[in-house]
Amino acid sequence: MAHIASASVFALLVSSFIAAAQTSGSPQQPAQRDPQAAAVIARSVSAMGNAAFSDSAMSGQVQITAGGASQDGTIRVLTRGLDQSLEEWTVGGESDAVVYSRGFAMRKAGGSSQSLSGELAVTTHSKLLPVVWLSALIADSDISLFSAGQEQQGNSLAYHLRAWRSFAYKPELRHLSEFSVADLWIDATSFLPTKIAYQQRAARGIDEGIRIELTPSDYKALGGIVCPLTIEVSRNGTPWAHISITTVSLNTGLTDAEFAIQVSGGGR
Predict the structure, then answer these.
(1) d(CA 129, CA 175)
(2) Which end of the chain is more exposed for a tag (fewer CB within 10 A), N or C?
(3) Beta-strand relationship, 69-80 and 210-222
(4) The predicted structure's pLDDT at residue 255
(5) Looking at residues 201-213, what average pLDDT do you find?
(6) For 66-125, how does the pLDDT look when each residue is reduced to its tens digit (9 = 90+)?
């Protein structure tokens, strides 16, 4: 019961922070930065070898489970800097990719492309290579950070943190803050991420969206950084994908061309 109460207070505090940013008359409402949350994330980035590289290319095998049936496939994840990413899933001979670039996002599937709304774009920056995503949280002054302290996860303690975009300098987009919220748990001993969770919603109101949970594990040094070799993905609490990472390469010379997006509204 104490854990439930703590989680409720946590959610209430974060909601109040976001509401304050959305209703403030100031054109530059600053992001809320919890010093402990920032320190834990910085230590986690250091434990993974930091993201001092220009780009990365990661690949692996996936097994997708849906409707009681399983299919095998491959995954490719590209990152450039701290604000561009591409996830490409190829299963059953069909490719489905999501590109994120500096606040905008696009989905490419079935030979066609679709620009994603701002509500969806704010959660599409890939989190499958945690060192890049966590580094982006620290580097971007528009990201608010909050700490709920430590929680028991299995046999270990983990820091439960929450991050969201404040849109401090773009008040016309502050309504997107609530869509950008992500929770993360970082092991209190190894300082490696153990779970990342967020909600993908296309609109306000009755649209509850899809809750995505990533559970990275089996961390190893690969390609010059420490990354999870296994990532479990669930949707609304149901196991959906098992990812096995096989290769990671850094500084491969990726350019803006790999992350090109046809912008049609939305985004930042």
Answers:
(1) 28
(2) N
(3) unpaired
(4) 97
(5) 83
(6) 888 899 999 999 999 999 999 999 999 999 999 999 999 999 998 899 999 999 999 999
189's CB contacts (< 8 A; 6+ apart) are 156, 157
Check: CB of residue 130 under 8 Å from CB of residue 48.
yes
How many CB atoms lie under 10 A from the CB of residue 81?
18
Angle of helix 130-139 versus helix 35-47 axis, rounded to 10: 140
- Long-range CB contact pairs, 40-43, < 8 A, 24+: 40/147, 40/159, 40/161, 40/186, 40/191, 41/134, 41/137, 41/138, 41/145, 41/161, 41/186, 42/138, 43/191
Minimal CA–CA distance to 151: which of 139, 160, 142?
160
Residue 134 phi/psi, 5-degree rounding, is: -65, -35
Measuring CA to CA, which residue among 126, 141, 147, 129 is closest to residue 40?
147
Residues paired with residue 64 on neighbouring β-strands, in sequence order? 71, 241
